[in-house]
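Exercise 7 asks you to align residues with tokens for two separate proteins.
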Amino acid sequence: MAVGEKIPNYITLGNLFSGTVAAIFAVEGDFKTAGIFVLVGIIFDFFDGFVARLLNVSGELGKQLDSLADMVTSGVVPGIIMFKLIQNNLIADNLFEEKTAQILDVQLIGLILTLAACYRLARFNLDTRQTESFIGLPTPAMCLFVVSLPLIQMETDIEFVKDLISNNYFLIALTWFLSFLMNVEMHLFSLKFKDYSFKNNYVKYAFLLASVLLMFTLNFLAVPLIIILYIILSVVKKRFL
């Protein structure tokens, strides 16, 4: 294998390294640092494919490495963060010792995200329909949604939003819903560009512009709203455009 063919794989390993470090900080409850490393990992995840297309190299090894790295960064880390969020709520409500005495601790439900992400990634590797679009919510999108929750909880002044994230019934329902979205037969557009013409990419450009505006105005709260907007635009595009 030529050196040029290895470069995308090295970038993919950067994703894996970032995800592993993020997992360590997530276990320790340092959600901000975990979020930074998740973001770095997702950037690596984007650029490994970009560089592979730029160098016109591809292969089965790169495909498998990509999914294995995503499994850590966008599968294990959000599962740990949801686990910690549910656990923290139990501690805050003085229910932690009571719940941990049960055979199945309720915070383990958060790890369903990890299982669902693994199942989605395995299906993605075998599904030839997902070369230009996605079927089901991509794992990085799910990951960003979950990683943003503790950051929103720390930063926002909106009590309703804080109360939602502090409610384990909401977090458990969200865990199941995101797990469902990752594996449902729902077509979502990809942000890969074949060309940069407005005519062929106006939905993508509209989404990117709206995302930037939301990030500048709402900070971390923008992240779940951007994911929701992505889903809505994808459904509208598929049905009407």
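Second protein for Exercise 7:
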Amino acid sequence: MTRLSDEQLNTLQHLLTAERARLRGEIRDHLLATDREQYGDLAGQVHDAGEESVADLLADVNVAVLGRLIIELREVEAALERIATGGYGLCEDCGIDIPYARLQAYPAARRCVEHQALHEKQYAEEGKPTL
């Protein structure tokens, strides 16, 4: 097993900390912009179904973007917690070391490439609406 060196761990921790700050800023900016746009008020002022559906679409897109940013922030926070508790860099499915190159590309990685592919395949349908 190859563990991360202190230098590698510090580099990755710095990347995660910077990403956390970036995501928090994006979330803050997104919330402020959404508050200014007030799509709910726009939807109440529209005069036809087409304008109303555009207002609804814009509101839905804003909610989806904000939701994705929050998920990314949670992943970064979880990675920083794993660094603090000593579990960072280990695949949560098999326990082997996640290669440094993968962690550089995606510092919040929870799994090795093989198990991430299995996870994505297994949960590919999750969240898809059904009729």
